[in-house]
Amino acid sequence: MSENSRIISRVKNGELSICNDCKIYNLIYNNIFFQFNKEQLHQFKEYLTKIDIEYWLTFNSSTTQKRKIPIATFHKNLILIFNYHEIEELKILLGIIKVKLKPIINTADIDYTLILN
């Protein structure tokens, strides 16, 4: 990531950033690194929204592998496989799913008797 990049969104296992100079989006998720232009990022987001998660979980239900949802790549011999929670986290990272942030509580909101020993 160059010095002229900014982070657009972040989740536990990844982040989406953009280089302000070259307008390339960098999507880092676990050990996968994608680079997209604006149109490619839009296509990837559309692809993620169209994945039939229930179909793949049912189709691959007999396997012992925990990752069962495939994402095809431009290379015909490379298919990325994700589990349900990873797909959901990718959707949050890309802004497909909006997450409502929980408010931070104040110490006055905690109803607990504290006993110091």
Biggest beta sheet summary: 4 strands, antiparallel
Structural class: alpha+beta
Content of β-strand? 25-35%
How many distinct folded domains? Answer: 1
Query: Helicity, in percent?
Result: 25-40%
Give the tally of β-strands: 6
- Which segments are poorly predicted (pLDDT under 50) over 5 or more consecutive residues? none
Give the overall silhouette.
extended
Tally of helical runs: 3
- The ordered string of helix (H) and strand (E) elements is EEEEHHEEH
Radius of gyration: 19 Å
Q: Termini, distance in Å?
A: 49 Å
Subunit organisation of the chains: single chain
What does this protein structure show overall?
The chain has 117 residues and is of the alpha+beta class. It has one domain (5-100). The chain has 3 helices and 6 strands. The strands form 2 sheets. Strands 1-2-3-4 form a 4-stranded antiparallel sheet. It is extended and about 65 Å long. The mean pLDDT is 88.
